[in-house]
Amino acid sequence: MATSVLSPPFFHPLHQLQFSKCPRLSSKSHFRPRLLRSISQRTIRAISAVAAESELGTQQDHAIEADIFACPVCYEPLIRKGPSGLNLPAIYRSGFMCKRCKKTYSSKDRYLDLTVTAGLRDYTEIQPARTELFRSPLVSFLYERGWRQNFRQSGFPGPDEEFKMAQEYFESAEGGLLVDVSCGSGLFSRKFAKSGTYSGVIALDFSENMLRQCYDFIEKDDTLSTNNIALVRADVSRLPFSSGSVDAVHAGAALHCWPSPSNAVAEITRTLKNGGVFVGSTFLRYSSKTPWFLRPFRERTPQGYGYLTEEEIKDLCTSCGLTNYSSKIQQAFIMFTAQKP
């Protein structure tokens, strides 16, 4: 699927806007310099605000984009400039700005970067080792070429069966917007998009290389339409969506990788609509069938993954306000679901 795209629109910082110079006043003028500066500054600020609003345009008739994407700093809907539509070419050629804090966002390498640190030049944030692992180009390349297949040894039934299980849980979200958080290389994002069950699918991950790999898989798949799929870089603990705007959230083999599962589940709950569904899968630290003498050897360590027990996952979901919790367990594999009331 070769798609011709244009570079994202350029947002002109307000300090680069050109304004005509004020005429010089004669020495006999009654205006004092301090008052003149005050008037000029107020005028420039007013003109700057109007220019920024005019350049980006509110375009209320394209409300679908404002309803979907929000600023990860203040959660205000983003103003969009560019072609409409939740698809790769349209989003790549669009620019976004938060109406409140004026922070701008644009696409890079085929994905839209909606992290808090998007656009920063000097600041670098240190991430946990397990987060950095999945940002590696090698791990991103290997994820669907052997890495994910090893999950079967722990009881994972395989992508096809896991997708079928998730679809059953998502039955009430048919026709809505689905966000596949921590999507990795888009293994399930592509399946959700191909199913035609949802109005839109957003493949979301913190790893730049995973999203690039996801794009490569999409581009090579002639059976996958890109009319309803978007790639977004974001932090699961700071999701770029307005509260109550998402119908379904999927997190496949992800919860154990999150630095703070409680923050992530709380964010997922915030973004879900009333009646929205959350489905996740992960590795259990141990299950009710694990012999008691083996449990101490499977406790979490500070440097390892955050494996939870079945009881902890249920407690986490209910404490974040989710209801109707249920799960299916096979060895160390668990798929669970919960709903926002």
UniProtKB/TrEMBL annotation:
Entry GO CC: plastoglobule
Molecular function (Gene Ontology), one example: S-adenosylmethionine-dependent methyltransferase activity
Protein name listed in UniProt: Methyltransferase type 11 domain-containing protein
Subcellular location: Plastid, Chloroplast, Plastoglobule
Keyword NAD found: no
One GO term of the biological process aspect: methylation
Source domain of life: Eukaryota
Protein's gene: LOC100798970
Entry similarity comment: Belongs to the methyltransferase superfamily.
Domain Methyltransferase type residue range list: 179-279
Organism of origin: Glycine max
